[in-house]
Amino acid sequence: MVTTESSGAAPVAVEERLFSLVLALLASEAGLTKNEILSTVQGYRQKYVFGGDNASLERQFERDKDDIRELGVPLETIEPLDEAGSNHHLRYRIPKGAYDLPADISFSSDEIALLNLAALAWREGSLSRESRHALLKLQSLGVDSIEPVLGYAPRIRTREAAFDPLTDALARRVLVRFAYLKPGDLSPRERTVAPLSVVQHEGRWHVRGIDQNVNEPRTFLLSRIIGPVTRTRISFESTDDQSAETALAQLDEIWQRNRAEVDVRANSDAETRLLKRRGSIRAADARLTLHFTDLHLLADELAGFGPEVFVVSPPELRDAVRKRLELTVATHLTPTPGRQTGRDEPHERKEQSNAEEPA
């Protein structure tokens, strides 16, 4: 049902909430009380009611404590000396020394250089506005930070440009419009969608929503969205609380169902990389069986290995890889001003023949 535009704070992902909790507990040498955590840490403070009922939020915190402990994080509980047995003023912290690397782990000079280069991808002061606000609130409570927490946030972004506007529209429950290019189409078509969830599957982001043109649920690959995502002022209501689980289950079902068989050159880059794909199976004859969700994306990947891969099945995947290799060869054979001809042509024809073999 379509209603007027809705508003509200964007939901905080579980991963971000747990990450913020760990950072806050690392930053405080004396630890934080439950009230300080719930009222200041990103993911809790948005739901915290000062002087009100926070029972559900406290239960969430108890579950989060179990989750980070299962991840191997050494969360400690400190009991006040003068209030033994009282849970009201318990303090929680993560001792820095207990969360350091084990003493028997060391790095060579080359490894340290690589780690230093990786550290350049992180910048101080890059936390979100909400996280900065939480740190200021902690300081106002007299909690001193012993760690440069702001330096933990990454600068590199691996999400598609459509990610932020889609998650924003999802939080506001408003329709979006975007141009979407389906495989095989020559031009994109505009879609109007009520976004229900944004999920990651096999390293790629998807949005599941109700396509308003057909009034049915559809899942769209974010990398196929062309141009900007436009957020409308038209809101919608949805009772589908399991949308993310539904989208992931459907994508995983497609992944399980679709299989490809390929021969790879021994000790090649293709063999190394394809063997590491989730669900890859190597037969006795060294042939690999791969699962995939999107035939065209797999064709792009396999074509990139050139003569190191030969597609056995399915035939449509073999044809898709062949077309990509033929396009690559044709692109490199396109005459350019000042290019030499004659003696080079037989060699180029030989390259074309070799390039077509894998497909």
TrEMBL record:
This is WYL domain-containing protein. It comes from the Bacteria. Residues 330-359 are annotated as: Disordered. PANTHER family: PROTEIN PAFB, PTHR34580. Residues 162-225 form the WYL domain. Residues 341-353 have a biased composition (Basic and acidic residues). Residues 260-326 form the WCX domain.
